Amino acid sequence: MVNNRRIGNTSVQVSEVGLGTVSFGGLYTPTTQDMATEAVRTCLDNGVNYFDTAPLYGHGRSEERLGVALKGVPRDSFVVSSKVGRVLDPISDEENARRKDVLAVNPAPFQARDDYSADGIKRSFESSLERLGLDRIDIVYIHYGDITDAHNRQILDESYPVLEDYRSQGLLTAIGMGVDEVPPLLFLMERADFDVFMLAFRYNPLDQQALPELFPRCAEKNVSTVIAAPYTGGILAMDDLSNGAKYMYYDAKPDVIARVQRMKDVCAHHNVPLRAVALQFGLNHPVVASTVPGGRNGKEVKDNVRNVEMDIPAALWDELVSEGLLPKDTPRG
After folding, report:
1. Is 267 among the domain residues?
2. What is the mean pLDDT of residues 85-110?
């Protein structure tokens, strides 16, 4: 059974495996509302209560589809996180048809842009509530795009105070940052009281940048971490690495493919899929509250749950370390 873990000092309890809904917005291939609804209902039937979305995903389409899928579900039985920091501006259908977006096939006719101003945060949050069909959002992450010193200051001076106000009104419970780099988190966590960080690409079998400095500080300050994109954009979940392997959402380079193949070979010796190692890798660290893979249908959701619950022998972790594929200080199951 999937366990729940607490977010920081808040009352929010998230399942240790959640569902990332970037695929609801058409990541790599088109999706439908029926697929999204099937994925959400399969989660709920299997003890998964945590759903992450963002305005950026499909330019609003992910939030809309998640909202439809959750309609009629008792509000206290699920946890939703979304993001602010990017606003959606309408564009014409012609402009929408011409553009190419790595994160969305057939996105909604909007263009995302960074906006960390107080007005931008309010606009983003209120639009998300409307698309989701909710009266509150459990976790709100500031979705960091273009990382600059000016944006850091604006987040502290404008973005964070708006979210604090929303929290005092009961419109959200936990405040976080959603980012794929470690340095801005180290900077911001010393200057504001965050409950949780959503970190993509920096703590997984291919990259452990969060381990030496960020995670110890999170432990000291009781800031939880949620691991986004635990399959690193796809490559750690693939059966056949010769068929368009993606790393951080782009075509994987040959050295990355070769390293992942070595990991797959070690896993095969122990009859464990690399997907299971990828999901449980983050959960082995005590500051991690949840790992949030994608899933575009019920079958993929069931696979995620099965891999989180799978027993991984200590000998597998030992072999990955002895082969130089994981560092010696990596927390193991």
Report:
1. no
2. 89
